[in-house]
Write a structure and sequence with these properties.
The chain is 37% helix and 35% strand. By secondary structure, it is α+β, with helices and mostly antiparallel strands. It has a 4-stranded antiparallel sheet with strand order 2-3-1-4. Strand 2 and strand 3 form a beta hairpin.
Amino acid sequence: MSVLVAGTVRVPPENLDRFRPHMETMLSASRAEDGCLSYSYAVDVADPGLVRVFEAWRDEAALQAHFQTPHMAAWRAAWPQFGVSDRNLSLYEVAAERPL
């Protein structure tokens, strides 16, 4: 069963440009992982400090492996210097998928 991770984090808008290279590194490394189907961040148009997160993984085992990677540790370690806060992510188990 595939799983989705969706939610938001906050970054002070004045820090977004300096934080962007860290986001790009995380995207690139995560997308290369076995079991990663999709991985993206998007800055909300109406709320520039709100970063929307969307991930799709083959299964929960792949997601758990992702949590143990060096790039995940580096990602989390960088948060304080950029003021990342209000992490609000949820895990969704996907039983079926169809085009809308």
